Amino acid sequence: MYKWLKPTLCLKGFEQLTPTLLHGLGIKALLLDVDNTLSDGHGLPIAPEVQKHLELLKEESFLLCILSNNGEERVGTFAAPLGLEYIAHAKKPSSEGVLRALSLLQVEASETLMVGDQLFTDIWGGNRAGIQTALVQPRGGAEPWYIQLKRALERPFIKRILADTSVLRGE
Ligand SMILES: [Mg+2]
User: Fold this and answer.
1) Nearest-angstrom CA–CA distance, 23 and 171
2) All structural domains of the chain
3) Please, which residues bridge with residue 85 across strands?
4) Cα 147 to ligand 1 centroid, rounded to whole Å
5) 152 alpha carbon – ligand 1 mean position (Å)
6) Which of 85, 95, 102, 130 could form a disulfide with 65 if both were Cys (CB 3.0 to 4.6 A apart)?
7) Pairing between β-strand 29-32 and β-strand 112-116 as defined by DSSP bridges
8) Ligand 1 geometric centre to CA of 136 (Å)
9) At residue 83, does pLDDT exceed 90?
10) What spacing in Å lies between the alpha carbon of 171 and ligand 1's midpoint?
């Protein structure tokens, strides 16, 4: 079980994914979760500091694609002003959406990184598809009960990840 939930990287947030760190891992493309990864919660827009970092990664020629389990309306509305490709209804932790993103961006699994805040969707889905994965601390505050439940189930695994010296950290 643990091997499916173990991320390549464990970070405070998206902004810790510096070009230097990404180049070091051979990453050319990033698949991005939306809620609590780029936004502070369900239905909210991108956080300003996250957007700034996104623009920087674009300038550095990284390929970016939103990959969310949310519906077309939420994901399309989120991605459009950012000028990003997107996949809605990604069905994480199925590898289906990730594999679609790889063919959309025309990149190899080994040079792609899934970035997300949830172990049982983002990290598991990325690992199943054979790409690299980055777990970030969830942005935002109060969450609905079903997310809180998932967080509680994640907790023992997060503890293990934090104690695992083979999981890379940001600066
Ligand atoms: Mg999320």
Assistant:
1) 15
2) 2-166 (3.40.50.1000)
3) 65
4) 9
5) 15
6) 85
7) parallel
8) 9
9) yes
10) 22
**b/e burial code for range 25-49 (CB count within 10 A of at least 16 → b):** eebbbbbbbbbbbbbbeeeeebbee
Is the separation of the CB atoms in 88 and 7 below 8 Å? no
CA of 42 to the centre of ligand 1 (A): 9
Q: How far apart are the CA of 133 and the centre of ligand 1, in A?
A: 14
- Coil, helix or strand at residue 42: coil
Sheet holding 63-67, edge to edge: 85-87, 63-67, 29-32, 112-116, 132-136, 9-11, 168-169
How much is the mean pLDDT over the chain?
95
pTM over 0.90: yes
> How many angstroms separate the alpha carbon of residue 143 from the centre of ligand 1?
11
136, with CB counted inside 10 A (0-12, 13-18, 19+), is: buried
In the numeric block, the tokens 């969450």 are attached to 143
CA–CA separation, 48 and 38 (whole Å): 9
Which helix H or strand E contains 67, and what residues bound it?
A: strand 63-67
